[in-house]
Amino acid sequence: QKEVEQNSGPLSVPEGAIASLNCTYSDRGSQSFFWYRQYSGKSPELIMSIYSNGDKEDGRFTAQLNKASQYVSLLIRDSQPSDSATYLCAVLGSNYQLIWGAGTKLIIKP
Amino acid sequence: DTEVTQTPKHLVMGMTNKKSLKCEQHMGHRAMYWYKQKAKKPPELMFVYSYEKLSINESVPSRFSPECPNSSLLNLHLHALQPEDSALYLCASSQVGPIYGYTFGSGTRLTVV
User: Fold this and answer.
1) Residue A44 and residue B104: Cβ atoms within 8 Å?
2) Distance (Å, whole) CA A51 – CA A72
């Protein structure tokens, strides 16, 4: 059974600090890795994708991938209350099917 | 156009009703998906269409019937649903072999009474 694991949280972070979200996956053949943000009652929104080992930065967001250790992380710098949401990690498995983590609820406290 | 449009946004239906959910995209994506999402859970895959052909049916009950009339449209026909089918129904699209991820619609909040 191919799995993606995330800590369900909630993860509470002070405003202005760095929020660090982590995800591990079991399928070594996975090729593409995604972070989606989902506000309560809304649909998931793709915020970051990463395909190769290392870091990828986009504004306040940095995705980190380590295929050897099978983990992917998302860092949010200068966290804002508007970043409060559930963050879903999704991994494209070797069969081209997207496998979802259960999501981490992030709370940014003013 | 970078959007997936879903209608209606909200739907309340009785257990004997027939209704349809609609999804449209004009991004040239040739893969389209129906997901079901319950509160505090990740999206759960229901159906995948690839080049307008049903490629994956995740053992979904026959009271859900998908249809892909053309490369831009995806429907989900609902009949004789149960209260436990109440959920957020999400449509998404992507390139075939979605290495660049999905684009989701805003969803239909379905309540079965």
Assistant:
1) yes
2) 10
Instruction: Please indicate whether, in this complex, the C-beta atoms of B98 and A49 are within 8 angstroms of each other.
Output: no
pLDDT at A2 over 80: no
Asked if B99 has any chain A CB less than 8 Å from its own CB, the reply is yes
- Written as six digits, the tokens of B112 are 């079965």
Cα of A108 to nearest chain B Cα, Å: 18
For chain A, the C-alpha Rg in angstroms (whole number) is 13
Longest dimension (CA), chain B: 40
Which two structure tokens, joined as six digits, stand for A48? 């970051």
pLDDT computed for residue B44 by the predictor: 95
pLDDT, average across residues B36-48: 95
* CB atoms A32 and B98 under 8 Å: yes
Average pLDDT, chain A: 94
pLDDT at B98 over 80: no
Query: CA-CA distance, B79 to B17, in Å (whole number)?
Result: 6
Window A:71-100, CB contacts with B under 8 Å: 88, 90, 92, 96-98, 100
Among A65, A66, A62, which residue's Cα sits nearest to residue A79? A62
pLDDT confidence bin for B70, thresholds 50/70/90? very high
